[in-house]
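Standup notes
- HV: blocked on the assembly model, inputs below
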Amino acid sequence: MSSTVIDKAGSRHLLMGNEAIARGALEAGVRVAAGYPGTPSSEIIETLAAVAGERDLYVEWSVNEKVALEVAAAASFAGLRSLCAMKQNGVNVASDFLLHLAGSGTRGGMVLVPCDDPGALSSINEGESRHFARMVEIPLLEPGDFQEAKDMLCWAFTLSEEIRNLVMVRSVTRLSHASGSVTFGDLPEVGGRAAFDCRGTLLETLSDPLRGPLIPFPVPVHHARQQQKLARAVALFESSPFNGYDGPEHPELLIVTSSICSLYSREAVHLLGVGDRVGILKLGTTWPLPPKFMRSHLRRCGRVLVVEEVIPFLEENVKILAADLGPWTFFGKMDGSLLSAGELNPDRVAAAVAQILGISYRPVPEAYAARAGKLAETGAPAREITFCAGCPHRASFWSIHGALQLDGRQGFVCGDIGCYSLAMLPCGFSALKTLHAMGSGAGLASGFGKLRDFGLQQPALAVCGDSTFFHAVLPALVNAVHNRSNLTLVVLDNSGTAMTGFQPHPGLPVDAMGDIAAGIDIVSLCRSVGADVHVCDPFDLRRTRDKLLQLLATEGTKVLVLKQICALSPEKKGKKRFRMSVDADKCLGQACGCNRLCTRVFMCPGLIWDARRGVSEIDEVICAGCGVCADICPAGAIAKEEAV
Amino acid sequence: MQAYELPQDPFNVIITGVGGQGNVMASRMLGDMLSRRGLLVTIGETFGASQRGGSVMSHLRISHTATWSPQIPAGRAHVVVALEPTEAVRVLAAYGNPETIALCNTRPIYPVGVLSGASAYPSPAELREAVGALTAQAWFLDATDRALEMGNPILGNIMMISALTALAALPVERDDFEAIVTRTLPADKAAANLAAWDFARRHFVCP
């Protein structure tokens, strides 16, 4: 993509929302970008990293979101424009520094881009970043389409320098991971030296925002200045081109919306054919709302539907502004016109509008809908998500599950964030019993490991990936060792941040831009803090299970690193180590004592069950050739042969 | 002034399949070709861990005039392209209407529930009947099997896109495809992709 995002002004390209955001930052002359990988945000940093050389940028994958925000802030303090990107819950991680940064203010333009995930399409939460903008008192912008994602990013840097504070630009999955047409603007000449002018007293920066220490002390004085900056942003929002109204002069219903919901709203009005009755007030500057602009449009109509994802943030703020306008009727999340959980789409918005206007809308003829419902039951069996064929996690959890069963004390696994979170499902033998934030598996296990005096007999095991290990597991491990907790931490090391697309992490000898980095060895690190550390290949099922059994029976804080590269990694993808086959004469199928352990329990999608012949088979298109299934077949019917 | 006519505006295409099949690449390639022809294209899709081995959809909105929602409304798909046949039924049930047309790759990928015996996979005859009952016209193409004969199952996706552009009368020509593969792929892979494109036009479109 590098050739595309740095193409010339005036050219038009089909860009992913995240690429449009990156292009906007490039047009603003961003110099430093940092983030931590997380769907749906990862491509922003990846896109910038790919053009770092050509555009003279420094781009890094930081160890976690808090450090990423600090790295980006340092560039701003030194006068450079900087960007920080993360998924929604990353803002929680960064929030302590975020609060203090908003208090100290910034110098070079600085933009924080959180990408929220309404509907939790790739998350274990529907957390919202918008509230942080209100909580720490910084301006919030929300692009409504792909062109605006580019244009708004570019302007956000200007705004940040106008008020000398951080600006938040919030995206969502359906924008970040969708693609649309974007026309490019100019790319500036790159240049400018970094310097942090920290001379003067603690009050220096109040008279010259580009000078003095960046320490918000005395706090109330700096806090009041921060609020003046926010008021300046509101004044600019009053005439922002990112806010606009489309519809009749005095509609029967006014939709107030922002972000991708503005496209859903437009489509809903189109579907219902009510463009002459319903107006759409699309907002790009969503906090603080510009009061004069808002009131002038709210006066068009006394019935307002607020369309947003996920919980009523915009709705609350609009209601506050409308409080003195008169007896307005509001529809949205609070009256149940739209749900406050899950994502929206054009149909959900159309249903709400139809209900309010008292009209009916049927997408397809009733007979078709009835037929479709019936045929889907038999024609489309449920497709549960599962580990890929050849995934090391399937083998790891096979051994973890087996060891916990053999141990017999009803031990359990505290889960963490990564592809291995899927082990809450049958594909991971439902081994995970808790799943919360990054690093929480080890933290919970550290706590469970101290409950024996209260009668807890079950051994606690935690899992984490290699990237997650550095992000937030390390403090929990240190805590466990220091407090002499009993737990087994299994590091599922697949050599990259696999779930989000193999971004490097501190354990690898390469950085975001492809340059040489200092790889930090997880095994030595764990040993250095005093844990009892072991290493296995998860594809060696017997050795892994025996080692786990031994560790479960041992006191103290133990770490088992299970090292095997992800099946989708560039090193492995498309290359089969083994050619697998099933000997139909040896496979006893359901008559076997195992009752087809391979397809009923192990359930690798590369193995299929031929019900007609009553034997298992290899699906050559899906099988990744890892060879693990050969070791689970008690009849020895599955054969592996080194592929050339 | 519009050089390329669309059957409808916006023209709505859903490419569906199973996580790992190359759905995202296929939709992006089609989008790039249409964009090259000056059309406004919006593609909605999701990816990440939550798609591993699950159902995956890409929604393409193709228009001369506007950027449309990245999610197609219920019942508004003009074409459904299924890289896996049961996914055609699943998607038609939500997004099809009596006028929808469908192209189905015939190669099954069994859900883990089917592998374990918890649910049953429909027979080829049942699948044809279900897809037929939910479309105005449907084509069943053995693209993956043909691609395996050419040495790489992933080329089945190229065959599906090649067949789609012809059967749904999309304004895309061989030179659009050639321009993209020669720009993005090494010479040997570009040649294999072009061979798959041509094969589909010869065997699936006007056999």
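- HV (later): unblocked. Chain B touches chain A through 66 residues (CB under 8 Å). The domain at 11-110+122-205 of chain B is CATH 3.40.920.10 (Pyruvate-ferredoxin Oxidoreductase; domain 3).
- Next: hand off to the docking folks.
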